[in-house]
């Protein structure tokens, strides 16, 4: 009788349901533990890294293109000061031909020359007439500085340089590059000093990817965005660059090139 009662109790529907429920609870607890473990692992794996730990984009230092010493240009207003001979002090602009005229020594080239270098030259020249010239050059007014952008851009033309300006910024100032532009072969023509110009091919695709640093521009740089890769730089400059710079612009130099070997 006892066993019979036990059998009946063990087969009672309510007891079976409670037992199954206990098993289900146990399975749920195990499942929740697994989910918690997987969630922790996933968060640790996909957690956004600390910004301090994110490596900076690769950038190639380009000190060769950093702004150089300011060079005088036509239209700059200069104060020529003599420490011991104040009667020779003068204020005069740099003429369109790049010259200034001073007492005793006459015409002196100022355009394309750094103010400090002009001061040294004047000290040497005036030393022929004065025992201690001590000449100082002070630029009172600056002519607006420009760079020129041409080729496959929306609005070819000049960009006034108010401060630091990169190649990409200058192109954007002229409406940006066209779809046909070859941004991997952008040409930069730069004045390097009396009688010296240099030509550089820039890869702006790498700049936009952060692989290299953008090039800082200098006044009177010429940027040309080609439609096709440049094969002969010398021929290219003669055909295109000389047409970008307006004839009305007064330069401390002239962009005229012969074919490169």
Key descriptive features of the protein:
single chain; 261 residues; alpha+beta; wza like fold; 3 domains; three-stranded antiparallel sheet; 31% helix; 21% strand
Strand content: 15-25%
- The CATH class label of the largest domain is Alpha Beta
Structural class given helices, strands, pairing? Answer: alpha+beta
Rounded radius of gyration (Å): 37 Å
Shape: elongated
Q: What is the residue-mean pLDDT, rounded to a whole number? A: 74
As a percent range, the share of helical residues equals 25-40%
**SSE order, as H and E?**
HHEEEEHEEEHEEHEH
Please describe the biggest sheet, giving its number of strands, its sense, and whether it closes into a barrel.
5 strands, mixed
- Which residue ranges are poorly predicted, with pLDDT under 50 across at least 5 consecutive positions? 1-14, 37-66, 254-261
Count of discrete alpha- or pi-helical segments spanning 4 or more residues: 6
The CATH homologous superfamily of the largest domain is named: Outer membrane lipoprotein wza domain like
Q: How many structural domains does the protein architecture include? A: 3
Q: Count every beta strand, where a strand is a DSSP E run of 2 or more residues.
A: 10
CATH overall fold name of the largest domain:
Outer membrane lipoprotein wza fold like
- Placed side by side, the strands forming the largest sheet appear as 7-6-10-8-9
């Amino acid at each position: 009788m006892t066993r019979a009662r036990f059998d009946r109790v063990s087969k009672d529907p309510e007891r079976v349901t409670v037992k199954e429920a206990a098993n289900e609870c146990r399975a749920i607890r195990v499942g929740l533990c697994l989910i918690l473990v997987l969630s922790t692992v996933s968060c640790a794996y996909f957690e956004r890294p600390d910004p301090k730990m994110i490596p900076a984009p690769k950038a190639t230092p380009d000190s060769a293109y950093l702004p150089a010493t300011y060079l005088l240009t036509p239209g700059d207003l200069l104060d020529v000061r003599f420490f011991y001979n104040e009667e020779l002090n003068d204020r005069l602009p740099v003429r369109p031909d790049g010259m200034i005229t001073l007492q005793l020594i006459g015409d002196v080239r100022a355009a394309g020359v750094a103010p400090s270098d002009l001061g040294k030259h004047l000290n040497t020249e005036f030393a022929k007439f004065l025992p201690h010239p001590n000449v100082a050059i002070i630029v009172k007014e600056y002519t607006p500085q420009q760079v020129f952008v041409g080729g496959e851009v929306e609005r070819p033309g000049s960009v006034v340089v108010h401060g630091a300006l990169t190649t990409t910024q200058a192109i954007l100032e002229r409406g940006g590059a066209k779809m046909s532009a070859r941004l991997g072969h952008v040409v930069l023509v730069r004045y390097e000093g009396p009688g010296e110009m240099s030509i550089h091919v820039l890869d702006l695709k790498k700049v936009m990817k952060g692989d290299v640093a953008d090039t800082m521009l200098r006044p009177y740089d010429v940027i040309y965005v080609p439609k096709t890769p440049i094969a002969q730089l010398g021929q290219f400059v003669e055909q295109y660059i000389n047409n970008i710079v307006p004839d009305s612009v007064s330069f401390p130099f002239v962009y005229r090139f012969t074919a490169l070997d």
